Amino acid sequence: MVPGEKQPEEQRREQIIQAAFTVATRERLDQLTIRKVAAEAHLSTGLVFFHFKTKEALLYALLDWLLQTMFEVWEVDSSLPPRERLFELLRQDLLDAYQQGPNSAKLELFFSFWIMGLRDPVIKARISQAIEQAREIFRPAVRDLLASEPEHFAGVTEDGLLSLMTAIAEGCPLQAVQSDYKVSLEQTLAALRALLLLP
């Protein structure tokens, strides 16, 4: 087999997950069933059950795929000043979120999973882990910023500033979806630029 080539079984799993994504975004997450996913994928229900033994297993696989596509690892030039690094990290994160487009299916599905996670500890744990990993991306720049401007950030803790950066990264897309993108990416970035970058 050619290195990197996907095996038929892996391709079949991806086909099923994509079908589950289509069903979940079209009919809402709580309406997803193995039968509907099988029909969308043009497969038998038995084959779907072969790859995912239960509906819960399919939901968790869909969530894992969603988190992997939404929470990417951003990198910036480490030689940039801390404020510029933080701005660039947030810019990349928000650019990715806003590029999903108005009424983004992925964003809306993520928030559906978020609500479901309030009563499902497995979903809650997986979302929390993804957010924590995304949060840690900001830590080096946050640490350097606090060290470079101790007087300006007197009393500000590393975790406190990290929480604020995460709130911006996660909260802006949520507000965008809820307001039908009334506030543009350009407006959000202009506000961030004014807050983070010195004149």
From TrEMBL:
<dbReference type="InterPro" id="IPR050109">
    <property type="entry name" value="HTH-type_TetR-like_transc_reg"/>
</dbReference>
<dbReference type="Pfam" id="PF13977">
    <property type="entry name" value="TetR_C_6"/>
</dbReference>
<dbReference type="InterPro" id="IPR036271">
    <property type="entry name" value="Tet_transcr_reg_TetR-rel_C_sf"/>
</dbReference>
<feature type="domain" description="HTH tetR-type">
    <location>
        <begin position="10"/>
        <end position="70"/>
    </location>
</feature>
<dbReference type="InterPro" id="IPR009057">
    <property type="entry name" value="Homeodomain-like_sf"/>
</dbReference>
<dbReference type="GO" id="GO:0003700">
    <property type="term" value="F:DNA-binding transcription factor activity"/>
</dbReference>
<keyword id="KW-0805">Transcription regulation</keyword>
<keyword id="KW-0238">DNA-binding</keyword>
<keyword id="KW-0804">Transcription</keyword>
<keyword id="KW-0678">Repressor</keyword>
<dbReference type="GO" id="GO:0000976">
    <property type="term" value="F:transcription cis-regulatory region binding"/>
</dbReference>
<feature type="DNA-binding region" description="H-T-H motif">
    <location>
        <begin position="33"/>
        <end position="52"/>
    </location>
</feature>
<dbReference type="InterPro" id="IPR039538">
    <property type="entry name" value="BetI_C"/>
</dbReference>
<dbReference type="Pfam" id="PF00440">
    <property type="entry name" value="TetR_N"/>
</dbReference>
<dbReference type="InterPro" id="IPR001647">
    <property type="entry name" value="HTH_TetR"/>
</dbReference>
<protein>
    <submittedName>
        <fullName>TetR family transcriptional regulator</fullName>
    </submittedName>
</protein>
